[in-house]
Amino acid sequence: MLKAAAVCRFVPLRVAYWGSIVLAELVWFVKRDRRRAAIANMTHVLGDHAAAVAAARRSFHNYGRYLVDFVRAPKIRREAMLEKV
Question: Residue 35 is part of which domain span?
Answer without folding.
Answer: 2-84
